[in-house]
């Protein structure tokens, strides 16, 4: 495949950019902080109160996340990276868990029980990973995330609707040098503890900083477009625009100085002290840390050996599918030779970004959407746009819209260089990112009435994992990969060439299971990982090196795609076997989607409950009536 596929933090599926005002109408939520007793009379009200308290604290603790979530009261603040905050955070989470355990779960409705169980997992996941805090949280900078990798993040999340938004953004810029210095202090702690990253996770950062630091402040990624086109098109008076721009230039000069301090620290102190072993197994307790990373991302108890073996099995299976497709195409050569021939054939490429964008739109509206009712019912009506990615990143990313539909879901396609984008892969990418993939996944959640901690996921601190709140990687990315598979059932891969594009995407995700565990648990060298990917996928050497360095940086994350997809397929087969003629694929997909992200064991419980209710609807109705009587 020609398109880069490494996913940067918060851009594969950005759940946190939509607001959920409907939850304020949820029964008991308006009680908010009024109920704080340990043993409340009414469990539903106690649960609502606790969830409201927790969410208010989360918004205060993570002000940038709050802005992205639509909460505006912290728009002038930045998250603290002072080391003392981590201990404070653990104490708060333990406090919330203790309060949750004081809520009588048996007094809750089935819907509230699901809230309870997901909330319990939310808090427990944080605490389970917290024992590794001083391994992961002391390394807040790597080549994939942070101000060095995404300097425009603070602009993207700000609304810029009036002068107050510009003032708030400037206040954040004024605080940014302090945040950068706090990150340097954390990395110094990592050196002291002997818990540094491998150098491949940070070796690119100095050049990233060089690309950010501009002599002319107006060319800085912190300046445009906020103080150029956005300000020009705003209602801010002209006299105040000049003042705002002058303040911005001063802020950027101070930010540049802080970034250069970080560059010097990395080159003179951190990189020379970087971990010499490739995977995290080189750290004390590193293998235990990796097992926790696997549990965090897959939400299972799979061992590294089980993940590794699954990867080998899947690579072999998918390779067989590819060889069968080549046989049908009468291609006399290897899989590698086939893709080399594709790269050399101009008929598999478009001539312009506009042609590629039109192809994506054609796939969505003329091929995929008309067939969705075969597999889904009650599809929410939310707008979707296809736009060119404004930077050279992964092949495509999806950003969710808002419940009021004023902001559409947007599929950003990387079409900057059409010579790198083979048409073989376009359908699989479209299915994954839009319909029935992440866009459909998001709009079902947008339409649901669920607590904010479930609907809004902070997907932008990968370095902190597993010592942070869950993002349900296996559920989110498992569905995306499963959506690529659904393209086969819908007849959307029109020929074996398109199927080969799908298989190239799938085998790469299978290879990740082998390489990630190999690097972090079985002592693989980086070169061995690179060679395995070159031998078993169709990626270019440049992309493979970036991918391997991604796995070194985010242990366990890349394993979740296949684990999640396989689990969804297993649950589907389980339901089909149990229900026989009663099985409706549309109902199954509703069960998977309408409840949002969750660990896979809870997803399986939901499917089991649906199976039981379908087989014995009279019992389900009786249980519902009894529960209503209990609550009254």
Question: Would you kindly provide a written description of the structure presented here, covering whatever features stand out?
Answer:
It is a single chain. By secondary structure, the protein is an all-alpha fold. The protein has a domain at 286-566. 57% of the residues lie in helices and 3% in strands. It is built from 25 helices and 4 strands. The protein has helices spanning 43-61, 63-68, 84-101, 110-130, 133-136, 153-157, 163-193, 205-212, 226-232, 238-270, 286-298, 304-328, 335-343, 353-368, 426-433, 438-447, 452-455, 473-489, 496-520, 526-536, 541-553, 560-579, 585-593, 600-615, 617-631, and strands at residues 13-14, 384-388, 396-399, 409-413. Strands 1-3-4-2 form a 4-stranded mixed beta sheet, covered by helices on one side. Helix 12 (304-328) packs antiparallel against helix 19 (496-520), helix 15 crosses helix 18 and helix 22 (560-579) runs parallel beside helix 24. The longest helix is centred in the middle third of the chain and has 33 residues, at 238-270. The radius of gyration is 25 Å and the shape is globular. The chain starts with 12 loop residues before the first strand and ends with a helix. The model is unreliable at 1-40 and 625-632 (pLDDT under 50). It comes from Pomacea canaliculata.
